[in-house]
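Course assignment 3, question 2. Fill in each field.
Student: A.L.
Task: Predict the tertiary structure for the chain below.
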Amino acid sequence: MTYIYTIGAAQGVVLAFALFRKKVNVSSNRILAVWLLILAFDLLARSIYLHNKNSVFLPTFIIAVFLPFLHGSFFYIYVRTLIHKQALRWRDLIHATGFIVMAGLNIPWIINPWENGPRTFGYYEFSLFSYSVAYVIAGLMLIYRYRKTLVQQQSNTEGIDLLWLNIMAYSQIVIWMIGLTQWLTPIPGYNQWHIYIAVSIWIIVMGYLALSQQPIKTLQKIKSSPEDNDDRFPQVQARLEQLMSEHQLYLQPALNIAQLAKASGYPEYLISQVINRVYQVPFREYINQLRVQSAQEILSASDEKRSILDIAYDCGFTSKSTFNSAFKRILNETPSAYRSRIQADA
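Answer field:
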């Protein structure tokens, strides 16, 4: 087990330095790098403790006992910085309250663990699980709100939809659930040390997911209209249909609602309201419906020889998986199945 912890710690250090040097999402990556270093320290301290429970490094293990109070907070701050590009402030130290309070109450134990024992440990597990999981949930709520805004403003959300952050969050929840079951239903041989095997694996997954991320842009919420039903709705709808039929703006892979608003001559909030209320779909789905409709027409042509991937690119999609997903969601069959059926009927 000490080998797994040591490998996990080494991976954490390597990934942390890689994130420090990464030029994309700099602030959030550096927060994640610090978090990985804390996790590496935690694993290394536990590895040393398992090797020799009375070594001179015992105080470092006692400090590591309280480090889990930081993990949920770091996830929340990391997500907040990634989405909102909000710099750290002194008042953000409030997010370290759990660690500061528990470590502060146990300073005598940290300084001299050979003679002094822990204090207030009767509340340790309950405080840790409730405090940390609350921060993970708060981070997930930030992701949910960002993604909700994203589909209202961007036609292509692949790579910036933060789905990879869900993996990080839900993996954390699994780890916390392992700890919770150990606390509530003690089983011989099933103890806290198994959690850190999962943590070692999670460090590697988390680091590599962060290294492969795309630049994340801050999205400003579109201002709402003071009127529930603007008199300009019919004109806006007609202008949108003109832009899509004559200029085929939906074929632009990176089309967003700001660009569409500029081309139409109407404000963003009005474009958004027309798409949501008249077409009853968010902006991304509105554009994808037009792209799928265009792809459907191409696939229906008997003399069409282009591959499905080429057709997807030509219709504004940026990957085959996104195209397949949108096509199946809208037409209830995959592009390849649709093409085969059309050819068979012909």
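Instructor remarks: Residues 233-345 form a domain with the Arc Repressor Mutant, subunit A fold (CATH 1.10.10.60). The mean pLDDT is 88.
Grade: pending
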